[in-house]
Specification:
It contains 24 helices and 29 strands. The radius of gyration is 26 Å and the shape is globular. The strands form 6 sheets. Strands 1-11-16-15-12-14-13 form a 7-stranded mixed sheet, sandwiched between helices. It has a 7-stranded parallel sheet with strand order 6-7-5-8-9-4-10, with helices on both faces. It is of the alpha/beta class and 759 residues long. The model has no long low-confidence stretch (mean pLDDT 90).
């Protein structure tokens, strides 16, 4: 039953906007969180008198217990991970012991390097620090790509006590900047805030950056991580830092009231309902963010919002930094009430008080849900969180079991340490830093990586050492060495004006910018004219703004060479492998869909298919075929099973909607892969938790009451053939026949595959 007054009003307006659509608020969950457990007063803490006065002036008379625990661990020299919800005082928890050290041990060199995942967050936190630095015993400065040259020079000549930067700057600075190298060599503390951001490929990059930092600093750095709530803080921090860490656990949420709700879309699209919710909230004067997990869906939601008379701006990666800052400032000042954002606004950037967040789909993990939900309800006001559930297998699962959404486990965060694409960048960077590396020190994974460098003419062997081809290596790092992209960046250029509009990374660019694709930039539609892999450029031209359709690619995936890295047999006797695989992504055409209803229209085939190949990691599965079933029967069953296991990975592994892909064969071979080149770690987690994913997949296909397949069970919006060759009933029958049984098969995945692959 819905009791909250605002939810009742929102529900009423939804029903008025879309009568008989089924769109409505279906579940309410309220929580009230008290103050964190108190700790000692600042007078009882062993810190310099000047720092006590600074804390008192900032209104801090007493520490929370978790803050004091962190203080004691860090002061004692322990590597430490602090986990607590947004706005609960994590920053003070790690900053206080660092300031105490600086006040007690004056030095002409930086004592601490604080890293944040974005430059905007660095500046936001720098402003926050000022109240603790008023006595001049400690200083702080930002040193990153946006720092003016004159200020950089002053910081090199007279370094601050605390250097605030980002992992990107350390990555490039270790190669190119004597100042960064000096800062790192002299530092005592290295802080990585918002640690939960560094999962997947970005986490693999951070791991190698940390390894390079440790090689540069031989004084014994103390590593500190800070994050929203994690299910595996110790294991995750240790996978990144490579050292044992102490864990300090704070409260999950800030003090205050939060009202969570689940909203059903009925027969409407989730994007339509999310935009409608935004319009209703804006009409009530409520400042809010609409979170989506796709750049183009952020654009689509903002575009639909215009049709409801709502001004929604877009904040996402790929837009110029100054454009993102302008939007943040407008939201902070209340000049706009709504922003459609990818996770770029998930972090703790100060955008003022938010009244609500609208999640256009459930976030990839419950950890991310808590992070996004934690953005609302500050300073004593209730915060509202609307999660939109649509025709989707996992959404349908939670619509049937709404209470499970708010009691679900948080999947562990993971990285793939042996990502060859990432390793190649950092081995090359090490070569440029050190001049050469002994071949005898490069074993196992690193031997594969250095072989790649030789093949691509980025390095050469002389005697017993590996050397960089410096000119080519520097050019490669400049063009392909970003830690932010999971693949090479494609520049999107307006063919009419010649202006560079945005960037998109491969392989996703293949699915977004094939010839004929509609691509949105700040809600403005552009037609893709083609994609040049050699020039890494996509050419587009503007379209009329009133178009009411968008496009989805029709594609297939071919699995080529593969190397098994690990293998096991599931508890049901199903052979599983974790492997490095070569994939060929082939876009053959596209389908036109209506923006509001998502109804499919015309299919258009490309004259020349667009093909892009890359390596990644994958789970390989071998299901035995059924006697008496035809090739078509098997194809329909295994394609449906592939879809539902990918859906189940969202619960089991915390995978986002586009983090994993799959391909199946009528022979019973299924490949579920990391969408990021080199691998993200999600497929490894699925390999380890496959039985649970298979169980949820069976629940999805057995609990749906459709005829033989629908968006609530086996259909996927990212299916390469537009959800053809699928059967819920056959998938249900097949999985039902193996659940609770043990199967014996001698075949290994992909060894005897046959039939056309279905993506």
């Amino acid at each position: 039953m819905i009791r909250d007054r605002l939810l009742l009003e929102v529900n009423s307006e939804l029903l008025n906007m879309f009568p008989r659509s089924g769109a409505s608020v279906i579940y309410e969950y309220s929580e009230e969180v008290s103050e964190p457990e108190p700790g000692p007063s600042i007078e009882e803490v062993d810190i310099p008198p000047e720092l006590k006065k600074a804390l008192s002036n900032a209104g801090i008379k007493r520490l929370f217990k978790f803050q004091y625990d962190a203080f004691e661990y860090i002061k004692s020299g322990y590597h430490t991970i602090i986990t607590a919800g947004t706005g609960t005082g994590k920053t003070e928890a790690f900053l206080l012991p660092i300031l105490a050290d600086i006040y007690s041990n004056p030095s002409p060199y930086p004592r601490a390097i604080l890293t944040y995942p974005t430059k905007a967050l660095s500046r936001d936190q720098f402003n926050r620090f000022q109240k603790y630095l008023v006595f001049g015993r400690a200083t702080a400065g930002i040193y990153d790509g946006d720092t003016p040259p004159e200020l950089r020079k002053r910081m090199r000549e007279n370094p601050p006590s605390i250097v605030i930067t980002n992992p990107d700057m350390i990555h490039i600075g270790l190669v190119r900047s004597p100042a960064i190298r000096q800062f790192i060599e002299r530092a005592r503390f290295l802080v990585v805030d918002e640690l939960h951001v560094y999962e997947g490929v970005l986490g693999s990059h951070l791991k190698y950056i940390i390894d390079r930092v440790k090689a540069r600093n031989n004084r014994g750095l103390i590593f500190i991580g800070s994050s929203a709530t994690l299910s595996n803080p110790k294991a995750f921090a240790e996978s990144l830092f490579g050292v044992d860490v102490a864990v300090v656990q704070g409260p999950v949420r800030r003090r205050g009231v939060a009202v969570h709700s689940l909203v059903s879309t009925g027969y409407l699209s989730r994007w339509t309902v999310a935009a409608a919710l935004s319009a209703i909230l804006a009409k009530k004067g409520l400042k809010h963010i609409i979170f989506v997990d796709s750049q183009q869906m952020a654009e689509l939601v903002a575009r639909i919002g215009k049709s409801y008379g709502s001004e929604v701006m877009v904040h996402r990666a790929g837009l110029p930094a100054e454009e993102r800052r302008r939007i943040e400032e407008k939201l902070r000042r209340g000049e706009i009430l709504a922003v459609a954002a990818t996770p770029t606004l998930e972090l703790g950037i100060d955008i003022g008080d938010l009244d609500a967040v609208v999640l256009a789909s459930p976030p990839p993990s419950y950890t991310k849900y808590l992070q996004r939900a934690g953005r609302v309800g500050r300073r004593g006001r209730p915060g509202y969180v609307f999660t939109v559930l649509s025709d989707d297998p996992i959404d349908a699962y939670y619509e049937r079991n709404p209470e499970k959404y708010f009691s679900q486990d948080m999947p562990p965060l993971v990285i793939e340490p042996e990502n060859e694409e990432v390793g190649k960048i950092h081995l090359l960077a090490r070569l440029l830093e050190e001049g050469s590396i002994k071949l005898s020190s490069l074993n196992g994974f690193w031997r594969t990586v250095y072989t790649r460098l030789l093949e691509e003419n980025l390095a050469y062997v002389k005697g017993l050492h590996l050397y960089p081809r410096r000119k080519i290596a520097f050019k490669y790092l400049d063009e392909c060495g970003s830690i932010r992209s999971s693949g090479p960046q494609v520049k999107i250029v307006d063919k009419v004006s010649g202006e560079t509009l945005a960037y998109r990374e491969l392989p996703q660019a293949v699915l977004d910018l094939y010839p004929g694709a509609i691509y949105l930039i700040q809600t403005k539609p552009f037609l893709s004219l083609g994609l040049d892999f050699e020039e890494k450029t996509a050419w587009v031209r503007p379209l009329e703004e009133n178009i009411t359709y968008y496009t989805k690619p029709l594609y297939t995936v071919e699995v080529g060479d593969y190397t098994v890295l690990d293998e096991r047999v599931s508890s049901r006797g199903i052979p599983l492998s974790y492997a490095s695989v070569e994939l060929a992504l082939i876009v053959e055409g596209y389908i036109v869909r209506d923006v509001f209803s998502e109804k499919a229209g015309e299919r258009i085939w490309l004259d020349q298919p667009l093909k892009y190949s890359y390596r990644t990691k994958a789970v390989l599965v071998k299901y035995p075929t059924k006697e008496g079933w035809s090739l078509a029967d098997h194809a329909e069953a295994f394609h449906a099973i592939e879809h539902t296991i990918i859906s189940a990975a969202r619960i089991v592994c915390g995978a986002g909607l586009t983090d994993m892909g799959g391909v199946s064969y009528p022979s019973g071979d299924i490949v579920i892969y990391d969408a990021s080149p080199g691998g993200s770690g999600l497929s490894k987690l699925l390999f380890e938790r496959f039985e649970e994913a298979e169980r949820i997949a069976f629940e999805i296909v057995s609990r749906c009451d459709c005829e033989d397949g629908c968006p609530r069970c086996i259909y996927s919006p990212y299916c390469g053939n537009n959800n053809q060759v699928l059967s819920r009933r056959k998938a249900m029958y097949y999985l039902g026949s193996i659940i609770g049984k043990t199967i014996t098969t001698l075949e290994k995945p992909l060894e005897k595959r046959y039939g056309k692959p279905i993506a």
